[in-house]
Amino acid sequence: MTPRTLFTIVLKVLGIFFIRDVLALLPQVLVYIKFLASGDRDNTLSEFGIFLLVTLVHVFICYLLIFKTESLVEKLNLPASFNDETITLNIHRSTVLSISIVVLGGLILVKQIPEFCRQVYVYFQYRTMVHAEVNPATGPMILAGAQIVIGLLLLGNQRDIVSLVEKKKRK
Length: 171
What we know:
The protein has 171 residues and is an all-alpha fold. The protein has one domain (3-170). The chain has 7 helices and no strands.
């Protein structure tokens, strides 16, 4: 394995971890839509614009790190500082990507399952302690549930995701 290949793998794995942040941001769209529907459009609309800008920057960084890795390595001139021509590492690039996706999905699940349980507990506790006519906030519970689904999808479809990332390399 050459240093260039190693940097390519590291940048792609970093891009996959950036996807975690993008996927964590996407369920928040539901919260903004709920607030926009409620009528408070002045503050919510400007916050949604900032949120959308941050999300687009994250998506662009993910795109660069995953699909434009070769040009990024070239522009950053990363392998120029290495004297050795090859690095002995007998693991395939797709295996490293698969491991990183499984770890990413596991991290999301480990973080969000307790959060979801906590939000469900708070929801039902609020419903029983406060007046029955007042509805407690469901946004945090929906966000945690959506992130659990995202983690499960990452774990279940990791081969398809690796194929998508590697498809461009095969051409």
